[in-house]
Every structure is written in structure tokens, then in C-alpha cells.
Amino acid sequence: MIAPSYPLHALAGWMILLLALFGVGLLLVWFSFSGRRTILTRRFARLVRDDSPDLGAQHDLRSWAQRWARSHLDPDAPDASQREDLRLLACAGWRQREAYVALLGLRVLLPILSSVGAMIHASTQRPDLSGIDLMLRAFIAGTVGLLAPKLLLRLAATARVRRLREEVGVFAEILCVLFDAGLSLEQSLRVLTREGGTILTDLRLELELVLRHIVAGADRAQALALVLDELQIAELSDLVRLLCQIERHGGAAQQPLREFCRLLDDRRRTELQETVSKLSAKMTIVMILFLFPALLVFIGGPGFIALKRALEGAVG
């Protein structure tokens, strides 16, 4: 029996709905990005003249979208999920507000697009599907589209945190050398951001942000703690606390940094020993499951064959 062809007008309706949803999402993202200069102008005028300039009614929708975006970009918001998203974005190296707006847009658009796409694909491939099956496939696709951005962001953040942990020891060693040469903390950071691009590929971006905070007038210790503690890397947090204490109380920094490097090497050696111990236990399980049966067959096989032949000869 030939399956009935899918009606063209229904397929056109699905395509129009998909394009309409995609267009609405693009408009929301565009409105959130646009109007930033207008908002800054109004804020400056309100602070200086205690009023806001009349920029026309055409900016009302942009202003609303910008206020909505800024309300969702507050790092001190009580929402735990928002703080987690901001921390993951910082760990992944995407600290711009546009990155958070893009994440929000993906969380809104991707489930809708994936659900509609799954329904269109299922309807075109199997027109005889019932409504329940169609909605079930749309629900599964929407769930995957909802969870995919957070999962991909977490994977990117985990990979970058692993690379940052590997660069902390090199960063501390270079700081020791630069302090021995007579450079201050700010001068050392400038040298690392200017010349250490090939050595500190990921950490250099964080150091540039620290320098921008220092140039803006922040205290060195405060800028270091504000930027680097957000990554929640144990080794980097310990190094930041050490540098903050040296910056506040003064004194020679070479000896504490060398002791920190020695402690970091001991910690890494301990972690490596733990990894090797876990790997040996895993390999023991693998050997028991796969190598021991083969070894038993190889060693006991000839004996079983000889015993079988002897029994056959005795019976015969």
C-alpha cells in the first residue's frame, strides 16, 4: 500500500510558522543589542542634568528591551541559576554581556526551532503518524534543545578550566623571575599580557581584564580577586590570596612564590599518584574481564584437549 503524500499546504504552513518564530527571535536579540547608546545617553543626562533628553517614541521598544537585558545581566541577582550561568561564561572566557544575551536567546529559540523542526521532519517522513506521536517527538526535541546550550557551555568551561589549571604553575614561575628582575606586580602583569601570549594562552585574557580594572582605578588586590576568584580554581585562588597579601602588607615576594610553586608541584605529584592508582585498579578489572579468560583458555586448553582425547580413547 502506497503511503499518502503529505499535503503541500500543510508543509507550507509549518515552514511559515518556523520562519515566523525565527524572525521573532532575531528581533528580540536585535532589540536587546540595539539602543545601548541611547540608554547610556539617557543615564548620563539624568546624572548630569537630573532629566532625560527627548529622543523620540521610536526608542521606547528598544529601551524596554535594553532594560530587560540589563535586568537579566545583573551579576548580583539572587537567582542561583543566573549566577551559575555567569560563572560558566566567565570560565569559558565569554565575559561580555552579549554572550549572556546570546545564551538567553539560544535557550528561547533552540527549543522552539528543534520542536518545530522535529514535527516537520516527522510529518514529512511519516504522514500517518498520530498527533500523540508527533507531540512526543516535538517534546523530546524541545527538551534536547533546552538542555543543549547549558551542557555545551559546561563542557567548554570545564575544558578551559583544565587549561587554566595547567598554566597556573607557569604563571607563578614567571612571576618569580619578573620579581627577581625588580618589576612590580602591575609591570609584571603588563609584561605577561604583552609577551606571554604563546605561553599563557588562556590566562592572558584574564590578566588583560585585571589590567583594565587597574587602569579604571581599582586596587590591584581587589582587581585580582574580582576577576580570578570568579573562576573558582583552587590553585589560582591560592595564588591570588598570596599576591593580595604581598600587595597589602609589602615585603619580598620571591620566597613566598617559590614556596607556593613547590607546594603546587607537590600537589600535582599527589594528584598524579592518585590518578595512576585509580588507573591501575581500572586496568585490573579490565584484565580480569578480558585477559584472564583468554589466559585460562591458553593455559588450560591443551590439558582439557588431552583429557578429552584420553577419555575418548578409553571409551572407544
Plain-language structure description:
Helix content is 81%, strand content 0%. With 316 residues, the chain is mainly α. Among the domains are: 65 residues; 103 residues. The longest helix is centred in the C-terminal third of the chain and has 62 residues. It starts with 7 loop residues before the first helix and ends with a helix.
Name a few traits of the molecule.
316 residues, mainly alpha, 11 helices, 0% strand, disordered N terminus
Set down the secondary structure blueprint.
Blueprint: H1 8-33, H2 36-49, H3 60-71, H4 80-92, H5 97-125, H6 131-180, H7 185-195, H8 203-215, H9 220-228, H10 234-249, H11 254-315
Short description:
Among the domains are: 7-71; 163-265. Mean pLDDT is 75; it is low at 1-6 and 47-59. By secondary structure, it is mainly alpha-helical.
